[in-house]
Design brief:
332 residues, mainly beta, 27-stranded mixed sheet, two-stranded antiparallel sheet, 56% strand
Length: 332
Amino acid sequence: MTYLKTKFLSCAASAAAFTATMMIAAPSASAAEFSALEITNFIGRIEVQTGPNFALEITQEARTKNISYEDTGRSLSIDGNVRRPSSKGCKGYYGNLSWSTDTSETRKQFGGYKNLEDYPQLTITAPESLVLNISNSIIFGSAGNVAAVNLSDSHCSRFDIGNVTDFLVMDIGGSGAFDIGDAGRADINVSGAAQAGVKSSGATALYTSGSSDAEIGQINGNVTLGASGSSDIEIGNVAGTVDVNTSGSSDVRIDSVSGPLKVGSSGSSSVQIEDGRALTAVMRASGSADIAFDGTAQSADLSAGGASSISIDRVTGDVQTRTSGSADIDVN
């Protein structure tokens, strides 16, 4: 099952690169218990097969004459020696299209890289205690369950990863698409027209910009969300504190909350929370922004200006409201 939205857009500007400082994720257990796989300066396909007792080794390879390796037994570094991976071969944004007739159904996938079959291909086995690092690459394929992930991408990679038991760090842009299973903790930045999907996570920080999309099925911990540009964030149930800031024409949608709630929204952005119970709800709206909480708060501190609006389905205790301009606050 995929957690990525479908997108159909032209390839214009999909190659926009960005410079980012990526926090290095370190598993919480002793470093001696972990293996490490680093992939850098690489264009091609890699499949990482993981298991509890798998050795860290390359089991199959093709078209790899220009690749450099460094293998220490517990760590493996793969350098594709492509110092400036070119996005000119990117085919566009990712998505799927299907159509049916009375007798058959046809499916077509968009995206990818031109002549990918001519680039290196590797199959690697690794233990599930693997720390996976990917940078400066255009990579296609998948990895199984791992301990931690540090991933940066500004091109058109398409890579899926299983469960990440400890820390997931992603800084992605361009038109890349990444689909992740369950993560212990997550720090995610999505920009450009990139797409990120995570099945579930513990404590999470997620920031989107440009026309990017991000989706997390469930968050079992506190979450900080930031959305700008025309980006979209979709979150399932959140069991923890929720802190949301939106601007531009971005949209954030959350299925349910069960902790303190803080929301700030400006521009023409919107925040929609479908259900849940909040101990406190602090909301600030300006411009033509819209904030809606269709759940219950024990207390609320609400301020709206410009042509913005705030609505809460029910507040059981104290309510403080402030409006200016043509703003509207609706509390039942």
